[in-house]
Amino acid sequence: MRISELARRSGVPVATVKYYLREGLLPAGELTGATQARYGKEHLARLRLIRALLGPGGLSIARTRAVLAAVDDPATSLHAALGAAHGALPAVSGGAAPDLADARAHLARWGWQVHEHSPALGQFAAAIQALAAAGYPPSDALLDRYADAAGRLARQDVADVPTQSLADAVRFVVINTLLLEPVLLALRRLAQQDASRRRFPAGGQAIPR
Amino acid sequence: MRISELARRSGVPVATVKYYLREGLLPAGELTGATQARYGKEHLARLRLIRALLGPGGLSIARTRAVLAAVDDPATSLHAALGAAHGALPAVSGGAAPDLADARAHLARWGWQVHEHSPALGQFAAAIQALAAAGYPPSDALLDRYADAAGRLARQDVADVPTQSLADAVRFVVINTLLLEPVLLALRRLAQQDASRRRFPAGGQAIPR
User: Least enclosed by CB within 10 Å: which of A45, A140, B37, B194?
Assistant: First the structure.
């Protein structure tokens, strides 16, 4: 299809498609003349991925380029490809911790093996240190509970990865990892509201300030 | 204690403590002279909360002020106080959705009752619409799985809320809601890495690009 049809079918304005081409996010089409190129289904799928990363995903152009480079990397194994895509995603929160010993000890308790330099490991370490600094050091029981919930979700997330093609698998992992995060956090807050209503009904328990 | 001791015990420089006083984040101490004031344990606890919100929590000064106003609000019930603190927290992700019908339908399926204007409801709606736009509309089974995990965590989170005093309860809810979010997301990503390694071992299944 021509660029005008690509724009129409993707719902992305032609000028924006050209911008993605210039920025190297969208691969060039097949040249069919001096000023014309032909685009295919892969371009449509790529456009959808770009829109998801830049829009709801909240990624910068530079970060999107890094994620797409991982998507395009001709990795030697599916696990390596998924790891590269994962590693290119933005951090789940601000800082990373320099001291990973505690975080590694928890992972060892759970029998989890992860990439040595996984950004998520530093983020986990930073998050538990932040809780301690705030006066609420997380107990093993609390972290076990969160690890159990995360582990159940993750095993099913990974079981759902399609294996028809590497491109499909990596695209799925990028979208699924990134866009289900706000789902999970929003649902936790909503469930907390429901649980709070049940535990502390109006007119119930009085509590001193 | 004097401001110098408050600074020493909290690990926050005197100049920063004065900045929080000027910004109205930290309540004034009890005046003991023209230029001296006395501070108590509540000031120490408040400083720890301010540091958690501005630092690992990543909140702006303005947002921190709003959360603290909710913490200080003399609410009529614990549930209302927790709801106010919750509602003042920053969004779990970028946008909010104008159409909440789908999101409400899912909550009804789960029997969850939440605040009518809960920001988390709009964020949940936006997140499922973003997945659909990216070409991965979430199935009921997928959302049920995430709701089940979020519900288990939330029920225990709320069961852990201390009820000795309203101030303690609200402080706990603010810290626990906000600072366990990066824990949950980091653990999901780490568990995904472990699950990917198990499902796609090196030298295992070949996959076409």
Answer: A140
